């Protein structure tokens, strides 16, 4: 029995030593695992902190973009509102200017008519054979007979007819003015209102041709810019936006300081 116990003693010692070694290894492994867990937790915390910061930055950036978009939208609305108000004011100014020109024209027509009334016609000399021969040979035609209306009176009478809706009568009078008084400063206005008479009748092709004639024959007249703008607006209304843009561009380039050019710029911005 004693011998058996003595034989087992070395084995027990070895087993105990193995157990001690294994326990140390386990403790070291646990320590390593704990270190790894701590490092992982620290890394996760740092990553979470970075993600939270990035999310906060993105949220702040998003808020800034939204605020900027709101400001831009408000600014665009304000600009459009201002441009619309400017356009309305320009139209009002044009209307007031037209009223002033109308009153001035009425005054000129009245003075012209009074002058014709108070001018006594000179007695016509007896026609001689020589003068008759001269007329037959192509001498200058005699001046209008006394009492014949002048350009201002014809123009005023024609505009009155146009306002009453008698477009054909108005157009006839304006055509007479152009033919009888081609050097009058009222000729561009007469041609413009001929176009207006066609426009009032709803004859777009004739109105467009008449407006184009104002621009072609009287480019220095203030009516030229208005005629060009009316042509562009008519094209826009018919859906010919390409042609309208070309006329708006021509208007801005040719008459940059006109009221119509400001309206044309707004049309170009609104319909790029």
How is this fold's topology laid out?
Elements: H1 2-118, H2 129-136, H3 151-163, H4 167-180, H5 187-200, H6 204-217, H7 222-238, H8 241-254, H9 259-270
Helix pairs in contact: 1-3, 1-9, 3-4, 4-5, 5-6, 6-7, 7-8, 8-9
Keywords:
about 270 residues, mainly alpha, Serine Threonine Protein Phosphatase 5, Tetratricopeptide repeat, single chain
Commentary on this structure:
- The protein is an all-alpha fold and 272 residues long.
- It has a domain at 79-117 and 149-270: Serine Threonine Protein Phosphatase 5, Tetratricopeptide repeat (Alpha Horseshoe).
- Helices cover 82% and strands 0% of the residues.
- It has nine helices and no strands.
- The protein has helices at 2-118, 129-136, 151-163, 167-180, 187-200, 204-217, 222-238, 241-254, 259-270.
- α7 runs antiparallel to α8.
- The chain is rod-shaped, with a radius of gyration of 48 Å.
- The N and C termini lie far apart (113 Å).
- The relative contact order is 0.05.
- Residues 122-143 have low confidence and may be disordered.
CATH topology of the domain at 79-117 and 149-270: Serine Threonine Protein Phosphatase 5, Tetratricopeptide repeat
The computed structural class is mainly alpha
The amount of beta strand, in percent, is under 5%
Count the helices. How many?
9
Shape: rod-shaped
Rg over C-alpha atoms, rounded to the nearest angstrom: 48 Å
The total count of strands amounts to: 0
Query: Span between N and C termini?
Result: 113 Å
| Helix and strand run | HHHHHHHHH
Largest β-sheet summary: none
